[in-house]
Input
Amino acid sequence: MTYTDTSTQVIGRTRDEIARAVAEDLEDGYTVNLGVGIPLAIPRFIPEGVTVFLQSENGVLGLGPHPGAGREDPDLTDAGKQPASLITGAAIVDSATSFAIIRGGHLDATILGALQVAENGDLANWYVPGRNPAVGGAMDLVAGVPRVWVCMEHVDRSGRPKLVRECTFPLTGHRIVTRVYTDLATFHFEDGRLVLKELAPGVTPEYVRERTEAAYVEALVR
Output
């Protein structure tokens, strides 16, 4: 298969638009962990009237968006060490309690980035061979959570697909991804199959097909 270098093209969603797409799918009352990268933009896009309790593994339950220039508190950050705010009723806890929330099955979803997602739902997001490993809490976050949503660019910086037949990087979890949001499309895993559900604005099914190594079926809803 030949892949096209799209580095000079602007098509599909921006990183913020990926975050917005994810935020619009969150349901009222969810408790959700946000990983670093694109997921950290999600607090800015949660729809009005929807209450989502965002959990950060550094010990925040009730994470809010960036507080705005000049209102930053150096003692209050998200998992990416960026300034954050708190929603009404938020709690700050120690690391042991934070991971007890994660490991105890108290999350409705975890949203995180990825290096690769395989067509069977395998996830690789913690280590590129030859570079410094960065395990963090990724393996805890994908174990025992009913919804694992990935948000990422569709291809890497070299134009190689990140939705692949099999992950070539070390796995974070086996058959655990339930949705994938990229700059080009949204996919769900249904009955063990990867299903294309939505195209980003200006993107055609053929464009996605050319940039996806993983096998999938199309069942577009919008």
Summary: The chain has four helices and 13 strands. The first strand starts at residue 31 and ends at 34. The two ends are 28 Å apart (CA to CA).
